[in-house]
Write a structure and sequence with these properties.
The structure holds two protein chains of two kinds. Chain A is mainly α. Helix content of chain A is about 80%, strand content about 0%. Classes of the chains: A mainly alpha, B alpha+beta.
C-alpha cells in the first residue's frame, strides 16, 4: 500500500516536471501530455488511490504551472478520469494498442475542448450565456422523462 | 479480483468537481481576488519546480564557461570593461540631464520622475497558448517583484508581471492578445493604444486620425498615461501604415523593439516612477536617491546641482513658458516642455 503511494507520488511528480519543461522548437508541437497520461494510468490501475479528486487537483496544478485559465485542465482531467473509471472493465480487457488508440482519440477531444475554453470564451458573460442552455436542459430533463414515460404507458 | 472490480464514479462527486472547475474559470476570467490567491499559492510549488528544472541548464552553462580558453575569457572581459566604461560615461551625462530636467519640471508643475529601480532576472521557462505568451523568471515576491510591474530588456519594453509567488514570477509578453499599452507617436504628442494580437512580434495600433504623419520605421515610446509603464521607453517600430480612405483612420502595425525571441536576461522595474512623489518633492533630493545600487556612484554629481533652486519665486509670477528658457539657456534640448505637457494629468 505504502509502495503504491510512493510509486504514484513519484510518477505524478515526474509527469509534472515533464509537463513544465522549458521546451522550444519542434518538440513543443509533439510533446505528449505526460501528466494527463500518468494520472489516467493510475486511475485505470488503482482506482482506490487515484480517483476524481486527485485528477482534479493535478489538473489544477497544471493550470497554475502553465499559466493557463484556472480550472480548464482541472475540468478536462476530471471528465477524462470519470470516463476511464466508467469503462474501466472494458479498457482493462483490451490490449495495449487498443488502449493507446483510445487515449489518443480521447486526447483529440481533450485538446479541442482546451482550445475552445482558452481561445473561444474570452469573457465571463459569454460563459454564463452559453451555459444557460445546459441549465435549461437540466430543468427540461425530468419533465421530458415524465412526459415520455406517460406516453409509453398510454401506448402500451 | 481487483482488476475487474467496478469503480464507477459517483455522479455527485463528478458534478461537484465539474461545477468547481467552471466556477474557478469564471472567477479567473473576472479577475477575482480568490482566483488570484489560489494561483499565487499553488504557483509557489510550480514556480519552484520550474526553477529546479532550470538549475541543471544553468550549471551546464557555467561548466562550459569554465572550460573556455583563458585568452577568450580575457578578451571577453576587456570587451565588457570597455562597454561598461562607455555606458558609465553616458550615464554621467544622463544623470546631469536628469537633474536639470527634474528642476525644470519642478518649476513647471511641481512634479518629476525619479529613476526606477531595476532588478536583473533570468528567463527560465516559456509558456505559449493561443491567448497569451508568457515566461517564468527566477525572481519572486522576496525580491520585491509584484504583479503589474513593467519588464524591459536591453532594447525596450518586454511586457509586464502578471503573477508573482515566493519562488518566481510570470511575465506576460507584449504581443499577447490580452496586452495593451499606451504609446506616444513620435514627435506629435498623439497618444494611441498599442494592442497585442496573439501573433508573434505583431502589434496593432488602430484608429489613428490620418492627419498624423506616421512613417514606416518610426519608433513608438510609452506615454506613461496607462499608469503601468513609465513614460519614455521604446516599445515598437512601425512596420506598416494602412490608410483607409473611407474611414479617415490609419491602421498601423508594428513590431516590438525588444528581442522577444532571444530573451535570456530581463530587467524588472520594481519601483515604477509613476508612483506619487513624496510630499516634500525637491528635485535634487529625489535624484540623489536614485536607487539602482550599481549606478549610485554615477549618480553622485546630483547634490552639486542644488544651487539653481532659489529661482522659483521669480518664474512663479511670470508665465510658466518662459521659465525653462530663462533658467537653462545652455541646453536647448533640456526644457522637456512637450513631454512634460503629455505627462501632466
Amino acid at each position: 500500500m505504502r509502495g503504491d503511494w510512493l510509486a504514484i507520488g513519484l510518477s505524478v511528480l515526474l509527469g509534472l516536471v515533464l509537463s513544465l519543461l522549458p521546451i522550444t522548437g519542434w518538440y513543443s508541437h509533439i510533446a505528449p501530455q505526460w501528466l494527463w497520461l500518468i494520472v489516467l494510468y493510475w486511475v485505470l490501475k488503482s482506482p482506490q488511490q487515484v480517483g476524481l479528486v486527485v485528477a482534479w487537483s493535478m489538473g489544477l496544478l497544471l493550470d497554475v504551472g502553465t499559466v493557463g485559465l484556472l480550472g480548464a485542465h482541472a475540468l478536462l482531467f476530471t471528465l477524462s478520469a470519470a470516463l476511464v473509471l466508467g469503462i474501466r472493465p472494458w479498457l482493462n480487457n483490451t490490449g495495449p494498442l487498443q488502449q493507446a488508440l483510445f487515449f489518443a482519440g480521447l486526447s483529440v477531444v481533450y485538446l479541442l475542448m482546451l482550445l475552445w475554453i482558452q481561445g473561444g470564451l474570452s469573457n465571463g458573460l459569454a460563459i454564463a450565456g452559453y451555459l444557460g442552455r445546459s441549465l435549461s436542459n437540466l430543468v427540461v430533463w425530468p419533465i421530458l422523462l415524465f412526459a415520455l414515460y406517460q406516453l409509453r404507458q398510454r401506448l402500451h | 479480483m481487483a482488476l475487474f472490480e467496478n469503480h464507477r464514479p459517483g455522479v455527485t462527486k463528478l458534478l461537484i468537481l465539474v461545477l468547481l472547475s467552471v466556477l474557478l474559470m469564471a472567477l479567473d476570467r473576472a479577475g477575482s481576488s480568490v482566483a488570484q490567491r489560489i494561483n499565487t499559492q499553488l504557483s509557489t510549488v510550480t514556480d519552484g519546480l520550474a526553477r529546479l528544472i532550470a538549475a541543471p541548464i544553468a550549471w551546464s552553462e557555467q561548466f562550459t564557461a569554465h572550460w573556455q580558453t583563458r585568452s577568450a575569457q580575457t578578451a571577453k572581459i576587456t570587451e565588457l570593461e570597455q562597454e561598461n566604461l562607455l555606458l558609465k560615461g553616458q550615464m554621467q551625462q544622463f544623470f546631469y540631464l536628469q537633474t536639470e530636467v527634474n528642476q525644470l519640471k519642478t518649476l513647471l508643475h511641481g512634479q518629476n520622475t525619479p529613476v526606477p529601480n531595476v532588478l536583473l532576472a533570468t528567463r527560465i521557462a516559456q509558456h505559449d497558448n493561443p491567448e497569451q505568451r508568457s515566461f517564468n523568471i527566477n525572481r519572486g515576491t522576496n525580491d520585491g517583484v509584484q504583479p503589474g510591474q513593467p519588464v524591459i530588456d536591453g532594447h525596450g519594453i518586454v511586457g509586464q508581471i502578471i503573477r508573482s509567488s515566493l519562488t518566481g514570477a510570470v511575465v506576460l509578453e507584449l504581443d499577447s492578445r490580452r496586452q495593451a499599452l499606451s504609446v506616444k507617436l513620435g514627435d506629435s504628442a498623439f497618444i494611441g493604444v498599442l494592442n497585442g494580437t496573439g501573433t508573434r512580434n505583431l502589434l496593432t495600433l488602430d484608429r489613428i486620425p490620418d492627419r498624423y504623419p506616421v512613417k514606416v520605421g518610426e519608433v513608438l515610446y510609452t506615454s506613461g498615461l496607462d499608469g503601468v509603464f513609465p513614460p519614455g521607453y521604446p516599445v515598437a517600430r512601425v512596420t506598416q501604415v494602412q490608410n483607409e480612405r473611407s474611414q479617415a483612420f490609419l491602421n498601423i502595425t508594428a513590431t516590438p523593439v525588444a528581442q522577444l525571441d532571444h530573451l535570456q536576461q530581463v530587467l524588472v522595474l520594481t519601483n515604477p516612477p509613476d508612483a506619487p512623489p513624496p510630499p516634500t518633492a525637491n528635485a535634487p533630493q529625489i535624484t540623489t536617491q536614485t536607487p539602482a545600487p550599481a549606478l549610485i556612484d554615477a549618480g553622485q554629481p546630483a547634490p552639486a546641482a542644488a544651487t539653481p533652486l532659489p529661482t522659483p519665486p521669480a518664474p512663479a509670477s511670470t508665465p510658466t513658458n518662459s521659465a525653462p528658457a530663462s533658467s537653462a539657456p545652455k541646453h536647448p534640448s533640456a526644457p522637456a516642455a512637450p513631454s512634460g505637457g503629455a505627462h501632466a494629468r
